[in-house]
Design goal:
Elements lengths: L15 E5 L5 H8 L3 E6 L2 H16 L8 E6 L12 E7 L8 H11 E12 L1 H10 L16 H10 L3 E8 L3 H11 L7 H16 L2 H14 L2 E7 L17
Parallel strand pairs: 1-2, 1-4, 2-3, 4-5
Antiparallel strand pairs: 5-7, 6-7
Length: 251
């Protein structure tokens, strides 16, 4: 299940791509399939070990084109071990809401992006996320949980403050918002509740089969219920001006 739309975030074979805070590696795997030279970085050593195993399995299974490479790295997103301008593209998906120093995080991502390169940043969308917080304290009051909710304009302001230039936004995963509302209503650790189990089966079916009905429904509902807000930006060859306070798009 990809949050980044690669038609809006094009990659060329051989591009150096950093999936920063990669988690389970879903975007890193897609970049690898597209022929990129991928670095998947996260502070969770357990997840990175699994990502590394999947990279190896993909290579052995012939899923990647010649010239592609992939590396799974344990690291600190606020102190990346790469020189300025090292990557052609950076993905920062569902990470900003976890990090106290979000300004430092986006600044570090911008530092390692080359001038002319692209960055994709995704966060939980304000409306659906606010419902989750209202329904359940346990949803966000956990170690490593969500510590803030962004409005769209707030995220774009962070991106601009880092010297990046946004070029597009959209919402994603409308079908997933009700699932998390059910999880919060019945207990975030209660996977046995019938409504939660039934909706989970629907999501698995949708992800595996991609039926036209659910794909069309999600596309229609994304502007209203999309659980993720996705922003794309480029790094200009010279510093972009910081936007005025009123220059903000709605969530």
């Amino acid at each position: 299940m990809l949050t980044v739309d690669f038609t809006r975030f094009p990659l060329a074979p051989g591009d150096r791509v950093l999936d920063l805070g990669c988690g389970g590696g879903r975007h890193a795997f897609e970049c690898y399939r597209r022929g990129a030279r991928v670095v998947a970085l996260d502070q969770d050593a357990g997840e990175i070990a699994e990502v590394g195993k999947w990279f190896a399995a993909m290579a052995e299974g012939g899923e990647v084109p010649p010239g592609a490479s992939a590396e799974a790295v344990v690291g600190d997103a606020l102190a990346l071990p790469y020189p300025d301008g090292h990557f052609d593209a950076v993905i920062l998906s569902e990470v900003m809401e976890h990090v106290p120093d979000d300004k430092g995080l986006i600044a570090e991502a911008a530092r390692v992006l080359r001038p002319g390169g692209r960055i994709a940043v995704t966060v939980p969308r304000y409306g659906p996320e606010k419902v989750c917080w209202w329904l359940s304290d346990a949803y966000h009051e956990v170690e490593g949980g969500h510590i803030r909710i962004y409005r769209g304009g707030e995220l774009l302001a962070r991106i601009r403050e880092a010297g990046l230039r946004p070029y597009g936004t959209h919402h994603a995963h409308a079908l997933h918002a009700p699932y998390w509302w059910l999880k919060c209503a019945f207990g975030v650790d209660n996977d046995k509740a019938l409504p939660v189990r039934a909706y989970h089966r629907l999501l698995v079916w949708d992800i595996m089969k991609k039926p036209l009905l659910t794909r069309a429904a999600e596309q229609a509902l994304d502007p209203l219920l999309g659980k993720s807000f996705v922003a794309y930006a480029t790094k200009p060859h010279r510093a972009a001006p910081v936007a005025a306070a009123g220059d903000a798009e709605p969530a």
